[in-house]
Specification:
Elements lengths: L1 H19 L9 E10 L13 E8 L3 E6 L8 E9 L2 E11 L7 E13 L5 E12 L4 E13 L4
Antiparallel strand pairs: 1-2, 1-8, 2-3, 3-4, 4-5, 5-6, 6-7, 7-8
Length: about 160
């Protein structure tokens, strides 16, 4: 019984990996360490005075997505979805809750991010551009922002 369960476990892993790899191309599935920059949406130039911020994202089979970052501590981790749109190109969509930094962390709304990810041919890095829409607690659009990002796949050394 134990041996049969082990075979089923490893069989499921092989199946999951093969579903996400297309014709020898690397899969987006995995954990990534990124460096994002807030940019002017028109010029794509970095916004002065805003530091580059780091994030982790975990991309799961079946289109699941979780992200956390080390810049804005008054927001929840992001949860979302992803899909392949072309060879080595993916779309992500993810949301997070936002909270007031000046009060008792009261709910102030949410942010929605839509992103285009371009993976390197070796599957070890990607670049991304994103549009961010920030909504107040009633769902009204408050702000629009853009970011660029580079990321490296987390691997065992």
């Amino acid at each position: 019984m134990k041996q049969q369960m082990i075979k089923m476990f490893f069989g499921a892993i092989v199946f999951a990996v093969s579903v996400n790899a297309t014709a020898g191309q690397p899969s987006l599935v995995g954990t990534w360490y990124g460096h994002a920059t807030l940019v002017d949406c028109d010029t794509q130039q970095p916004v002065a005075g805003v530091p580059v911020f780091n994030d982790y994202r975990t991309i799961g089979t079946g289109g699941t997505f979780v992200q956390s970052q080390a810049f804005d501590f008054h927001r929840s981790p992001s949860h979302g979805i992803w899909k392949k749109t072309a060879s080595l190109t993916y779309a992500t969509r993810y949301n997070n809750f936002r909270f007031d930094a000046n009060s008792s962390d009261a709910f102030t709304g949410h942010a929605e991010v839509r992103e285009v990810v371009s993976m390197a041919k070796n599957g070890k890095a990607f670049t991304a551009t994103a549009s961010v829409k920030v909504y107040d607690a009633e769902g009204n659009l408050e702000d629009s922002r853009c970011t660029t990002e580079t990321a490296e796949r987390m691997i065992f050394d």
